[in-house]
Amino acid sequence: MGYPPQYGPPPRGETGRGLAVIALMVAGLLIGTVVAVSMVLDPPAQSSPPSATATADAPDPAESEEAVRQAAQAAFDAYANGRSGEFWDRWSSGARAVIDREEYVRLFRLCPQLVPGALFDIGDIVITGDTALVTAGRTTDPTPYDYDFVREDGSWRYVPPPEEQEEYRSKGVDQIAAERQAAGTCGAAAPVPAPTGPLPPG
């Protein structure tokens, strides 16, 4: 036969063992909670996969010589082909502040390039941080000249020489055009197209 259940107080000694078990369980729960919270707040450092490390070590394409070359070629092509507004669009923000786009376009209407269409041949490129020095010569004048570029918002932009910027800042377009015409550095203005509609009466 089995023993009948005990309804009275447990024998002496069992109370202490029960309390010890409960205390151990509570301590274990507290330790587990502390460990879990610390893992969430301060996760262990994980090593980056090889592909991520390789990508982080790779140079930024926008800082590469090829990016500068493409930006310079696009700017020079716009200038050589008479797209003065597009050329102005590729200037640095500081340079664009010295003359309005409309005024710059008007300047080249008053004083076109002496030899339009003379393309640029880009040579050496030296990058120093966010600045680049581009050496280039034109088909009509192969003597190489240095041109400054600066990186702004991830794009490489042309920086006109300081003396040119000062000319735009201190003189009006009409004065600049008149001086260039007097110096013989302006080409022939494009002919004004004849009207295509009927002639006015009179």
Write a structural description.
46% of the residues lie in helices and 17% in strands. The N and C termini lie far apart (138 Å). The radius of gyration is 38 Å and the shape is globular. Strand 2 (131-138) and strand 3 (141-152) form a beta hairpin. The chain has a domain at 61-183: Nuclear Transport Factor 2, Chain: A. The longest helix is centred in the first third of the chain and has 28 residues, at 14-41. It has a 4-stranded antiparallel sheet with strand order 1-2-3-4. It has helices spanning 14-41, 50-57, 65-80, 84-89, 93-96, 101-110, 162-170, 173-183, and strands spanning 120-128, 131-138, 141-152, 155-159. The chain is an alpha+beta fold.
Question: How are the SSEs ordered, and which strands pair?
Answer:
Layout: H1 14-41, H2 50-57, H3 65-80, H4 84-89, H5 93-96, H6 101-110, E1 120-128, E2 131-138, E3 141-152, E4 155-159, H7 162-170, H8 173-183
Antiparallel strand pairs: 1-2, 2-3, 3-4
Helix pairs in contact: 6-8
Keywords: Membrane, Transmembrane, Transmembrane helix
Biased composition (Low complexity): 182-191
Biased composition (Pro residues): 192-202
